[in-house]
Amino acid sequence: MCGIIGIVGKSNENVVDRIIRSLEKLEYRGYDSAGIAVISNGQILRQRAVGKLYNLKEKLINEPICGNTGIGHTRWATHGKPTENNAHPIISKDVAIVHNGIIENYKELKFDLQKDGYIFETATDTEVAAHFLQREIDQGFSPSEAFAKLLKIVEGTYAFVALFSMFPNTLMVARHRSPLIIGFGDNLCVGSDANSISSICNEIAYFEDGDFAEISKDYVIFFDKNFKRVERKRTAISPDLTNCGKGEYAHYMLKEIIEQPNAIRKTILHNSVNADLLDGVSRILILACGTSYHAGMVARYWFEKFLKIPTNVEIASEYKYRNPIIENRTLVIVVTQSGETIDSLEAVEYVRKNSNSKVLVIANVKNSAIARVADFLFYTEAGVEIGVASTKAFTAQLTLLAGLAFCKHEFLLQELQNVPTLCEETLLLYEHIKKIANDIKLANNAIFLGRGTLYPLALEGALKLKEISYIHAEGFAAGEMKHGPIALIDDNIPIVCICPRNELFEKTISNIQEVLARGNNVIVLTDRIGSESLPSETEKIILPNVHVEFAPIIYSIPLQLLAYHVALLRNVDVDKPRNLAKSVTVE
Ligand code: M6R
Questions:
Q1: Which of 185, 218, 328, 537 suits 290 as a labelling partner, its CA being 20 to 30 A distant?
Q2: pLDDT digits (tens, 9 = 90+) for 536-545
Q3: How far is the C-alpha of 579 from the C-alpha of 584, rounded, in Å?
């Protein structure tokens, strides 16, 4: 989703390069156009370009702009196609604004502004904010008064940063449901996440939903939604954030796959679950999206088996729309890497309005919006995850959920300690999986199969493949094949089957036989003992022997590597696959 940067320079330094560098750190969020605006001698200068940031950089080389206060934006189109004209910053005479989110009542606001003679030049919802602020400034209101009025009237989600040509050292910023962080250092700045501004500042302040702030050369004034001055806490920026480049790796995704043993180790070390938090809980409801939802699906098997608590898992984006009934004594668990996903945030809001359930959040990004609404908070210690395809955050989520599920089973908690080493061994399959990727690279469709806790993993394997290789892939519970999907099987469709030696092994083997009778491209992920009973026509990826309960964590790794290699063979930019955003901040 959109990324935002704003910098108020202290000296006469040109901030354009710094803005570009910060925008580069936001590229992972996903975008299709980008732009910058600065104030120079009381005038707003702007450059925008469609596509990747290098297009904007090229424009800036040919037609440079400079100024010591500026804003930048990477746009993930919602209202209006990704054209240069719709790219942010959006200008209305003396005001330039960047926006992440959706203004839901933009049509009414537009109608009203058009009546007052404002001419709309873009197809964006954001343009109403620019003209609205301009109208208030024209009527003699200050930037902070104009902002207060805008925020009273606007409905939807937003992170806004605006600059005003007649106030050359001032930025007005606001957020509601979309992330925005203020940074304090040599320069005062603002960004969509802490990493993006980590090279400009050493302290950051999070502000609350509905807050807005005036950032000047030397000070920041925070206001709450009632235009009352408030204080917001500053904290030192975490060293993790200043050291999260790609290093020697070709891609962030690969780096993050390889970081998994350490991410899991740290997650185990930094978390211990006190079983007391389950006292009186008679039901568990897990809410999440995408890969995090798959982690929740695995946890459901564990929770019911080991905690003996009935558990449901729901896709957060659907949850509130079916008016669900939340039973008393339900513990709600929200799983999220970014802690920003609007669907998960909305689902929590529904829970708050319709029950008195406690909400336990498992998040990777510290101080993120969802982390801040938790009753019980656990952080996965995966570190910054930049690759759009979630990898280390997923296995760290599984680790934390396992810690919760096994909190009364000391033996399993001990076994969990071995998982990082098993992950290290599994990573040695890198070259073998690279070869096997050739069996999939030309496919138009692929199927992933698993049973029990490995059924959610089949869904996850399929999701990884489709997001980064653009091959249509589906995950099925292996036993469901006969109920329909087996009609898809022919020699052209690769089938990836997750089949370690466990209590469902024989049944899964039967499902593999059924598939082999109709197709000939079957890849099986198994362990040494399992491999001995597999039909000879299958291609095998043999993993270390693992305790059955931890198979979902270990077997994630070959699935990630497979998707990664197939995507490389198909020349996809694995870290920035088309159309996708790392954090989904609009519904
Ligand atoms: O940040 P979250 O965990 O809440 O994000 C949820 C999904 O958007 C995310 O897992 C998405 O499916 C990933 N791109 C999958 O790789």
A1: 328
A2: 889 999 999 9
A3: 12
